[in-house]
Amino acid sequence: MTQRNTETALPYALNRVGVLMNPDPTDPLEAEGVLNPATAWGPDGELYLFPRMVAAGNVSRIGRARVVIRDGVPVGVERQGVVLSPDEGFERGAHNAGVEDPRITFIPDLGVHVMTYVAYGPLGPRPALAVSTDTISWRRLGPLHFTYQSHLSTDLNFFPNKDLVFFPEIVPGPDGRPSFAMLHRPMWDLDWLRAGEGAPAPAGVADSRPSIWIAYVEAEAARRDLSALTSLRHSASVAGPEMPFEVAKIGAGPPPLRVPEGWLLIHHGVTGPVAKGFELSHGAVYRAGGMLLDPADPARVLARSQEPWLSPETREETIGTLGNVVFPTAVERIAGTVYVFYGMADRAIGVAALERTAD
């Protein structure tokens, strides 16, 4: 894990705008909430929200809704149905199912929207990918696979993985080749699968708390065949829990945003108890912060926010399926302002403005 440069400033802040989407009490597909959305601009010039819609029994689908923008501010949505349901075998178990927590990155070099999501299948949460050119029809490319790296002395594919998001531009790979990069968050916990297996972290990883990792796909391979995006290489740790608001775990949020200082990654940090397996972590608090990644080496952290940029304070953020949660997952520029879309208490969706503070 690369040490950050503590002298590099991080002159940004998040200021809440309001609630964008609440669950529809008449829709059984939203019985347990709408949360953790992705976003994408359609060919029609409209902005669309892709919420995780949770039905009874914690069965999640990914919906699509047009974002209503008034005077440059996102203020509501118009629902347009479901774009992805847990229909494939790898997205369903005997007693569970779900396609969860989408992140969408438009990659101009490939001309497609890339959606990473969590498939809640027979072996718990597994990373998966779908692509689209129109934001309406999404073609599954399947589960992600991490190439074996002998120096880690383990197979990353053994482990559940969440908080997956691609960079929007080509970056330098660790082997010097132009690459597409994806952030991910493996969890070193196998007790849920086999009692007594514990948390066998990779060789060289002394801290087993869930942390942000990066992996790469050679750009030329992806240009030849989009399915190459599902085969990731050179996985490495980027950042672990460090600040007081993230002592339990951290994870990547929206696609990294290119700013003058480098790549700005908005992330979540968690304090309090973390449940074993995939139960809700009641009593935990999720907050949002930021870190700056080096454009010449996106695995290198240049700076981190020492305090959270957004903490659960409003009723929608403190009371819900899982209280005390702000969970940023999407970012878009609208009429000159950058807006961050985030899950509120695992039940609703909010919006905050990303603002540059004084240098």
Please, could you describe this protein's structure?
The chain is built from two helices and 23 strands. It has 359 residues and is an all-beta fold. Strands 10, 11, 12, 13, 14 and 15 form a six-stranded mixed sheet that branches. Strands 16, 17, 18, 19 and 20 form a five-stranded antiparallel sheet that branches. Strand 4 and strand 5 form a beta hairpin. It is globular. The relative contact order is 0.18. The model is unreliable at 1-7 (pLDDT under 50).
Relevant terms:
359 residues, mainly beta, 2 helices, 3% helix
How is this fold's topology laid out?
Elements: E1 12-21, E2 34-41, E3 47-55, E4 59-70, E5 73-84, E6 99-107, E7 112-121, E8 124-132, E9 139-143, E10 145-146, E11 161-166, E12 171-172, E13 178-186, E14 212-218, H1 219-224, E15 231-239, E16 249-252, E17 257-259, E18 262-271, E19 285-294, E20 297-304, H2 315-318, E21 326-334, E22 337-344, E23 348-356
Q: Provide mean pLDDT, rounded.
A: 95
- Give the N-terminus to C-terminus distance in angstroms: 27 Å
Strand coverage percent = over 45%
Class by alpha and beta content: mainly beta
Number of strands: 23
- Range of helix content: under 10%
Major beta sheet summary: 6 strands, mixed
Runs in which pLDDT lies below 50 for 5 or more consecutive residues are 1-7
**H/E element order:** EEEEEEEEEEEEEEHEEEEEEHEEE
